[in-house]
């Protein structure tokens, strides 16, 4: 991540890609750098992921709320302005 130059990102210019979950749909807008992927994700009501992710995340809830369930069955709820951070394989 040392070689990322200063820049601005206009999310209005980034394509939305649809990913179907077990239920609902997620729309991803992705910007990729060496060693870093930034995504703005919008979930439809009732979205449930169809997979477990082992990658680290920094998640900030821009609006609304959502629940995250870990592979340990622990659940965490985020509301607008809430955030969580987790490293790979956690």
Explain what the structure shows.
- With 90 residues, this protein is mainly beta.
- The chain folds into 2 domains: 35 residues, no CATH class; 39 residues, no CATH class.
- Helices cover 0% and strands 43% of the residues.
- The chain contains no helices and 7 strands.
- It has a 3-stranded antiparallel β-sheet, with no helix packed on it.
- The chain is globular, with a radius of gyration of 14 Å.
- The mean pLDDT is 91.
> Helix coverage percent of residues?
under 10%
Please write the string of helix (H) and strand (E) elements.
Answer: EEEEEEE
How many extended strands?
Answer: 7
State the separation between the terminal residues, measured CA to CA: 21 Å
Report strand %. Answer: 35-45%
Q: Whole-number radius of gyration? A: 14 Å
Number of domains: 2
Number of helices: 0
**What is the overall pLDDT average?**
91
Shape: globular
Oligomer: single chain
Supply the helix-strand structural class.
mainly beta
Q: What spatial order of strands do you see in the largest sheet? A: 1-2-3
Question: Sheet bearing the most strands, described?
Answer: 3 strands, antiparallel
What ranges have pLDDT less than 50 throughout 5 or more consecutive residues?
Answer: none
Quick gist of this model?
This protein has 90 residues and is mainly beta. It has two domains: 15-49, no CATH class; 52-90, no CATH class. Helix content is 0%, strand content 43%.
Write the layout of secondary structure elements.
Blueprint: E1 17-20, E2 25-33, E3 36-43, E4 57-60, E5 65-69, E6 75-79, E7 83-86
Antiparallel strand pairs: 1-2, 2-3, 4-7, 5-6
